[in-house]
Structures are given as structure tokens and as C-alpha cells.
Amino acid sequence: MPDENTPGHPGWSPDQPPPYGAGPGWSPPGGGRPGPFTPPAPQPGWSPPGAAPGSGAPGQGGHGQGGPGPGGYGPGGHGPGGYGPGGYGPGGHGPAAFGPYGSRPPHLAPRPGIVPLRPLTIGDILDGTIKLIRGNPRATLGLSAAVSGVTQVVLLLLQLLIADRLVPDLDVLSQAGVSVMSSLSLSAQLANLGMGLLESSVAVVLTGILTAVVGRAVLGRAVSAGEAWRLAKPRLPTLFGLAGINLAIVLIWAVVGFGPAVAVSFTTSEVGVVVGVFLLGLLVSAPVAVFFWVKVSLAAPAAVFEQCGVGRALRRSAALVKGDWWRVFGIQLLAVVITILAGMLLMIPFALIGGIVTAATLNGDGGGVGVIASTVILTLGAIVVSTVISPFSAGVVALLYADRRMRAEAFDLVLQTGVSQDLRPAFPGAPDPVDDLWRPTPAH
Question: Which of 233, 253, 318, 412 is the most buried (most CB within 10 A)?
Fold first, then answer.
């Protein structure tokens, strides 16, 4: 059956272009005359062979010899040099928008819980910590209040015991005068020293306990105080071991930093010499103590999340901090400054009330009772302060641990996979499979 290219067909024209390579005497089939050949109009963005890349129509980028690149379809499109910074259209579809290969724009990272599942910024960590406390008040503030209450009561009994040994009868302030106040001041200083050492150790344990809450909250799971305690309870021996190491670091720093100054003070009465030795010891010992403190600061979350012993937790903390020590130190230091300022503000009402009670009873027969009452008031204030700031400190450390694993081990992809699979307990009361996501692979 003849088609439109066959001579004689109704749609056939004798004005046919010459075939490729035809000589000058060629004539179309059927005896027609050769027609003028008009090449097709170039498409937008087309560049002739040998022309400069991207020399097509203005504003179209170019798709010729140079290959796809920064120009592209429309402004900032798809022209020479690869799918470059411009990308598809004005918004861009290249490295400027997506970053290195395999990365995800921050606004596209899933956020099932308190933080987005990508490497975290300082703002993410602080915001996630606040959301952790607001979303799990019983598990965070409740556990913190219980631990802080026990700790502060022990310290209160210690302070009262020291005061009772130094001052046989606190009610006779009118006869003892300044000597009683000096004794009480000494007892307060000794109690504060013990409080600092004990609280530094308790903070490690509390961080480990609250880590279980953080692990669930990151994936949008709520957890009760009882369940958090159940998850952390098997790790308590390891957490106490880590607390002992933290205490040892503080003691070694105190001995190295203050020991020489104390020794020199017994051999000379020159205050300048004692102060100089003290400052020298402080300058030498403080950087070393801070360095090791940062190195082991992620050990408590590692012990709970990865269910490992003391040695393994310390090695994991050192490995995660390696290569990013200054950033970890900066975030930890910022958290310390925030907690100190918050603690001072929360303590103001209790300090004012305690001072009023002490001043009101100082010149009467009930002075000793007033001092004890003031001490109790300050202890209550310390419980409130510790209850509020301890979860904040623990949350920052736990989220910093998660951030370091995301950056060093691409752990955010593991968490995203777990979210996409919608892991749920097999039955009510069964272990939550999301807890297993935090355990590292054998390679780590």
C-alpha cells in the first residue's frame, strides 16, 4: 500500500529535499524538481558543534557540548558543567540546595520526636532538652526530684552533724557570739565540699537514668518514670563505677591544684607566695582535668544505650569525642553556664527566706533553732534547683551523644529506618524494639 512518501500518493509533494550525500544532478522520484531545503530551527539551548558551552539562547543555560551544568532549564538550570548549584529552576536542585551527595536538607529530615533525625545544631539540642522535660515531666522531674531529695537530705544530715560536733549547744548564741558563727561557717564550707563531690557523682548516675527517657523521646515515644527506672536499673553498677571515676578526676584535680598551695602555706607566711603557687597549680591542673572530663562526658549515655561496662563506655565516649573535642566542650560549657544561672535565680527566694529567719533569731535564745531552720530552707531550695536543672544537664549530654553518633556513624539513617518501619512492641508490656536501634553494630 503506497504511503505519503510514495510518488503518486495524494499527500506526496515533488519538492523533496535531497538525500544525504546526493550529487548535484539528483532529482526527486516522479520527475519533480528539487525543492529548497530549510534546516529545522534550533531548539532553545542548542549549541552548534565547536561552539562555546552554554552559548544557546539567552537565559536558557544550554544543553550542548558542555553537558548539563550550572545553567539549565530556565534561570539557574541544567546547562554546562553538571547539575550544578542552580539546579532545576530558580530554587535550585544541586549542591547549593542539597549539600554533599547523600545528604538531606535540614527541613526535610523526619522529626518524630523531640529532635530532627539528622546531625543536631546547638539550638536543636537545647530545644530538644526543653521538649524532653515538657513532654515527660513525671519521668524527668519525678526521677530527678527523688534522686535530688535523697542526696540533699544526706548532705543536710552531714552538715548538721558537723555543726553539732563543732558547737555543743547552738542555742547559746549570746554567750558564744562570733565563735559559733565561725564554727557554723566552717561546717558549711565542709558540707559544701562534700556536696560538690557527691553531686558531681550523682549527676553521672542521674544522666544515665534519664538517658532511657531521651532514647524513647527522640523517636516520639513517651515513657513513664517506672519504665525509665526499669530500663536504667540493670546499668546502675556501671553508672556508679563511672561516678567513681568522675569523682577520682575531681579529687586528683583538687590535690594537684590545691595541694602545693596548702603545703606551702605551712612553711611560709607570705600570702603572695601561697597565692602564686595556688594559681600555678590551678593553671597546670585545670586544663588537664577539663580535657579528661570532656573525654568521658558521654560515657553514661553510652553505658545505658549500648548496655556496656565501665571500660567499654569510657572507650566509646573517647571515640565519639575524638575529632570534635572543642565542639563537645563548648556545648557542655554552655549547658553548665545555663544551669548555674538558672540555679542562682531559683535559689534567690530560698536564700532570702533563710537569711530573714537567721537574722530574726540571731540575738535571741532560739538562735540555734533559727540556724537549723535556715539550713533546712536552703536544703529545700537545693532540692528544687537540682530537680529542675538536673534533667536539663542530662538531656543535653544524652542528645550530644546522639549527635556525635549521627555525625561519626551516620546513626541518623539508622533512626530514620526505624521510624519508617514503625517498630512497635509485640504486646503491651513487651520490650520496645526501638531500644535496640541504639545498640551499635559490631564494627563500632
Answer: 412
Distance (Å, rounded) from C-alpha 351 to C-alpha 10? 107
For 273, how many CA atoms within 13 A lie in the half-sphere containing its CB?
10
Q: How many residues does the chain have?
A: 444
222 phi/psi in degrees, rounded to 5: -85, 150
CB atoms within 10 A of CB 166: 17
Q: How far apart are CA 416 and CA 393, in angstroms?
A: 26
Alpha helices in 111-235 (DSSP H): 122-135, 137, 143-166, 173-176, 178-217, 225-232
Q: Distance between terminal CA atoms of the chain? A: 73
Distances in whole angstroms, Cα of residue 195 to Cα of each of 160, 247, 391: 13, 12, 18
Write the DSSP assignment of 261-322 as a string of letters.
HHHHHTT---HHHHHHHHHHHHHHHHHHHHHHHHHTTTHHHHHHHTT--HHHHHHHHHHHHT
pLDDT digits (tens, 9 = 90+) for 320-368: 999 999 999 999 999 999 999 999 999 999 989 988 887 777 665 555 6
**What contacts 119, CB < 8 A, 6 or more positions away?**
403, 406, 407, 412
Closest CA to 337 of 393, 257, 399: 393
The per-residue pLDDT for range 66-108, each reduced to its tens digit, is: 444 444 344 444 444 444 443 444 344 444 444 444 444 555 7
Give the pTM.
0.68
H helices within 306-366, ranges in order?
310-321, 325-361
Collapse the DSSP code of 11 into the 3-class scheme (helix H, G, I; strand E, B; otherwise coil) and give the result: coil
Of the candidates 229, 235, 203, 231, the one whose C-alpha atom is nearest the C-alpha of residue 139 is 229
Cα angle 427, 430, 431 (rounded to 5 degrees) comes to: 135
Q: Any idea what DSSP says for residue 174?
A: H
Helix axes 178-217 and 122-135, enclosed angle (nearest 10): 90
Helices 271-295 and 236-265 pack at an angle, to 10 degrees, of 160
Residues with Cβ within 8 Å of residue 337, at least 6 apart in sequence? none
Return d(Cα 132, Cα 395) in angstroms, integer: 7
Maximum CA pair distance of the chain? 140
326: nearest Cα among 301, 295, 289, 299: 295
> Residue with C-alpha cell 513487651?
430
Mutual angle of helices 122-135 and 367-409, in 10-degree steps: 120
Q: Say which residue the cell 572543642 belongs to.
A: 326
For 200-242, the DSSP string reads HHHHHHHHHHHHHHHHHHTTT----HHHHHHHHGGGHHHHHHH
